[in-house]
Amino acid sequence: MKSNSDTIQKMSVHSQRGQCAKRLSILEAAAEVFCRQGFAGASIDEIASAACVSRQTVYNHYREKDNLFMAVVEDVMDRANAMLFSTLSSFPENPESLEDDLAAFAVRLSHNCICNQDGKFLRKLVLSEGERYPHLFESWRQHGPGKIGTALAALFSRLSHKGLLQIDDFDVAARQFLALVNADLQMNTLFGVTPTEAELETAARNAVRTFMRAYAPPAV
Amino acid sequence: MKSNSDTIQKMSVHSQRGQCAKRLSILEAAAEVFCRQGFAGASIDEIASAACVSRQTVYNHYREKDNLFMAVVEDVMDRANAMLFSTLSSFPENPESLEDDLAAFAVRLSHNCICNQDGKFLRKLVLSEGERYPHLFESWRQHGPGKIGTALAALFSRLSHKGLLQIDDFDVAARQFLALVNADLQMNTLFGVTPTEAELETAARNAVRTFMRAYAPPAV
DNA sequence: GACGTTTTAGACAATGGTGTCTAATTTTAC
DNA sequence: GTAAAATTAGACACCATTGTCTAAAACGTC
Question: Best interface-test mutation with A: which of B35, B127, B180 has the largest number of A CBs within 10 A?
Fold first, then answer.
């Protein structure tokens, strides 16, 4: 395949590159198919051909369908969590214009965590297969959505102590911020429509305006 | 086939009572199974035994699985829409205490339309089977969630003209109201946990407080 | 080039589901 | 009570899927 090459460092690792590529290809294809068809509706054959791989290879890597499904879910959850906290770290702690910066942050949040493929996948899978695999999504709930609330709350608390906001309950404010950001997008996300960038910005601006009206300190 | 319809017309309504009961029983059982297992994961056998009916009877009433599924979805959508507009009609148009009355309304909305069995079913099914049956959910989207927005907007508009609220964009305010009501419940609904009445009330109160802070007219 | 590993296509049994058919039984209408 | 209609259990063909197995081919490494 890629016998051409640049600096090859370690043979042992190199040998795994082919395997690793296949693994990733399978994981990716499986995610797409599971997301579209659900667990029961997805067939290994479809996943294999979507991954350009023989069925047997799928079985070689992931013993059985259940196992593959769990690997896919964990993979997507890890990516989603990483993206979530990466986006969280771009929260405007020293804002120039609080309203503008919060809106931009809201756009990033929608774009990177809610409206992307992983976000769609997780909403769909948690809802449709959550009851069948309680333990699987439980850890994600605690480390993902569970933590974003407290993390955002802490960030709002800092803004509040700086006098930029006037918030009594930080946890509630954090949840409300997230809810407001989603307010205009929920119909889209529910029906699987990906909103345009312009829609994202409008939604973010509406959300932040209302949030600020509710939580801005009294004008000087 | 044809002779069947002749005789059915000839028969009085009484004979349909038994049939009708079976139909409803099947519909109910199918809703439960489809909701739990998804379309692909649900089997006619399971539905039949959940309905205490033979498999053949299911096929007699609803030719095929697809057909049964669509009937179930339409049934649930009708119920959900009826409940939605019934709840909407209890909107406080002449509130004693706007905050209290709005909160009570929010509780009714959560309780009757969002956290009940039909709400759960629709969220799950729209998300998991929406792409497979676009036309099926499209009409619901327009007549249900699509209309609740405009209806709520109209109601807020009246409150605004009475001077009880100060809203610039009624549609946005309506969506935000709904979003705020859901803010504290989203985690629960996503994971299929039914919130307690106390949680509903707290969520409603938080939502309305923020909504009022953002949209209450300046104090006299 | 030789070797071990991985991948592949295809056959395969086992399973479980759909939808049909039949013949017997129960329910309902009059 | 009788006749028509509905329901039932069971058998059935058919199909899709899972997971295993095999022998051949491709690949990477030395």
Answer: B127
